[in-house]
Amino acid sequence: MKRILITGALGQIGSELTMKLRETYGSDNVIATDIKMNDSDACSSGPFEIVNVTDVKNMVDVAKKYKVDTVMHLAALLSATAEAKPVFAWNLNMGGLMNALETARELNAQFFTPSSIGAFGPSTPKDDTPQDTIMRPTTMYGVNKVAGELLSDYYFHKFGVDTRGLRFPGLISYVALPGGGTTDYAVEIYYEAVSKGKYTSYIDKGTYMDMMYMPDALNAIVDLMEADPVKLRHRNAFNVTAMSFAPEEIAAEIAKQLPGFEMTYEVDPVRQQIADSWPNSIDATAAKEEWGFKAEYDLAKMTKDMLEKLRHKL
Ligand code: AKB
Fold first, then answer.
1. DSSP string covering 203-220
2. 141 in active site
3. Which of 189, 194, 222, 264 is least enclosed, having the fewest CB within 10 Å?
4. Which residue, judged by its Cα, is nearest atom 6 of ligand 1?
5. pLDDT (tens digit per residue) in 269-307
6. The pTM is what?
7. Which helix (H) or strand (E) holds 264?
8. Burial (0-12, 13-18, 19+ Cβ within 10 Å), 140
9. Which residues line ligand 1 (CB under 6 A)?
10. What is the pLDDT of residue 178?
């Protein structure tokens, strides 16, 4: 049985991952932490502690209090916010990661942190981007993610910390909204489709990016963390993806299921430039071969579920 500390537990991934892990490993065995509390289930359904990830003592003290054997470090700024506040992003994303790795080292704990398609850059092959390839990102977020992958590998080789990671595409969910990402349009579009019947996209037509529905992302985290280490040739971090689409394709799928839906464009140059520097589609063969990664949701199935869930929620 695992005993897991999660940082960033109230964020887009954390709020759902906390609930899934509590169902899987028991509520008392999943310690949710974040910089502040809110009234979500992640706070009320099990142990919750305030943790500032830039304060290593704070993190280690909480980890020791609960005797955790796994650290899942999710607290980070996403790509667009990091681009607007690069120094803050470096300090939070890299400082927080270093502190979380140190916490894992001190407690001899297993470690997970997400990387991203943002770790790739304009000189990376754009289609079917391989697992091992050129990684020269041009965004602060991407620089943080590549450095984070290398640092996580370093902690594995140097200190024997069982570090594992996933290069996530844009994650789509009806539970918690993302904030400050480039792929956020693919979440917002569903909310506005249901509430207003129309959406103005800040990403231009013809811009392909990988995406994944949250249930697949949560399963991927659990499966990777349960995977037999002997089978892992890679660790930090595995390409994973479920679909790749451009704004006009998600709009067409929504219109099929919600007749009358309309989309217009008002391109944001900053987020468009970030999107243009990322792959069109990535290749997840290594994840499939080394630990059996699979995704259940394609664009049509995800759209059906998103629209159904949001009709009840909004
Ligand atoms: C972002 O857009 O910044 C994130 C990501 C792909 O890492 N969703």
1. S-TT--EEEEEHHHHHHH
2. yes
3. 264
4. 170
5. 999 999 999 999 999 999 999 999 999 999 999 999 999
6. 0.98
7. strand 262-265
8. buried
9. 78-79, 116-118, 141, 168-170, 178, 181-183
10. 81
